[in-house]
Design a protein that fits this description.
This protein has about 290 residues and is an alpha/beta fold. The chain is built from eleven helices and ten strands. The relative contact order is 0.10. The structure holds 3-hydroxybutanoyl-coenzyme A (3HC).
Length: about 290
């Protein structure tokens, strides 16, 4: 199997920074690319904070944290990805933007490198087919926070070669992830099940079944979930959740994937959850409190 030593990560946002961190911690050289110096600095800053926290908590040695940081190179130029063996994209969940990005990256990255998408829901084949190496293209779907969540969905699309799939599985194992292979069906396994559940929680709220706090408390205490569904929606990002709903609804045309009116209105208001400071909860205080505007 091809040796992977240098990994490119496109995007240093909510997912990209975490993927870059766990990849560097596993011993890979990492190049992480953002669109602007500001966004890059934010992403690298988050990695440095998490590495420092791990040392404070005694979960990592200072020397190992420093070494992991030293393996991460930040850039705003695609050209710095040229000699990567594997490139994982974690940019905005928008097919148009992803295709535009691959058009450039595919030309620059060495021809025998593997390419992967961290898409939450878009069929992988649409991106694979836009490159000149669809057999070297696969889905690698991480979960938020990538530093903590154990699962990596490894997605084989119709063109993915056995070798590319093996590269993805091996990379996931080296990161200490549990790899689960799944078919290239919109939403894969987890979002196929998690998204309708989250949307049902929003509908339950709309129907007055419980308040925001009650619905979340009930699912935590009654079903053993680490977070209630509405807190989880804020955590994932309501913009990301909305984008996933649109893809799943377009693909399957089933009501269970349709955006409830409350979600649609929240997005119109620019309430994207934790990342914007407002979602089902208001994050401006010490502790999140249910959003009084809902
Ligand atoms: N980076 C590194 N470590 C982190 C972290 C981060 N971003 N966030 C939390 N942690 C660590 C903490 O340091 C802590 O470590 P410790 O136990 O060694 O002290 C541990 O995780 C637990 O964190 P906290 O004590 O701060 O808080 P919680 O116990 O509430 O855990 C949580 C936080 C891990 C986020 C937990 O609430 C959880 O598992 N929530 C569910 C998350 C989930 O379902 N994610 C999947 C979303 S779906 C998705 O991503 C798919 C996409 O396509 C939409």
């Amino acid at each position: 199997m091809a040796e992977i030593s240098k990994v490119g990560i496109l995007g240093a946002g909510l997912m990209g920074h975490g993927i870059a961190q766990v990849t560097a911690e596993a011993g890979y050289e990492v190049v992480v690319r953002e669109v602007s110096d500001d966004k890059l600095a934010q992403g690298i800053g988050k990695i440095e904070k998490q590495l420092a926290r791990a040392v404070e908590k005694g979960k990592a040695e200072q020397a190992d944290a420093d070494a992991a940081r030293g393996r991460i190179q930040g850039t705003v130029h695609y050209r710095d990805l040229a000699d990567c063996d594997l490139v994982v994209e974690a940019i905005t969940e928008d097919l148009g933007l992803k295709l535009e990005m691959w058009r450039e990256v595919d030309q620059i990255v060495k021809p025998d490198a593997y390419l992967a998408t961290n898409t939450s829901s878009l069929p992988v084949i649409d991106q694979a087919a836009s490159t000149g190496r669809p057999e070297r293209f696969l889905g690698l779907h991480f979960f938020n926070p990538a530093q903590v969540m154990k699962l990596l969905e490894v997605v084989r699309c119709v063109t993915t070669s056995d070798e590319a799939l093996a590269v993805g599985v091996d990379y996931g194992k080296k990161l200490g992830k549990l790899t689960v292979q799944t078919k290239d069906k919109a939403g894969f396994i987890v979002n196929r099940l998690l998204v309708p559940y989250t949307l049902d929680a929003i509908r339950a709220y709309e129907e007055g079944v419980g308040s925001i706090a009650e619905i979340d408390a009930a699912m935590k205490a009654g079903a053993g979930h680490p977070m209630g569904p509405l807190a989880l929606a804020d955590f994932v990002g309501l913009d990301t959740l909305g984008a996933i709903c649109d893809v799943l609804f377009d693909e399957f045309r089933e009501r269970r994937f349709a955006k409830p009116p409350t979600l649609r209105k929240m997005l119109a208001a620019g309430w994207y959850g934790r990342k914007s400071g407002t979602g089902f909860y208001d994050y401006s205080g010490e502790e999140p409190t249910p959003n009084p505007g809902l």
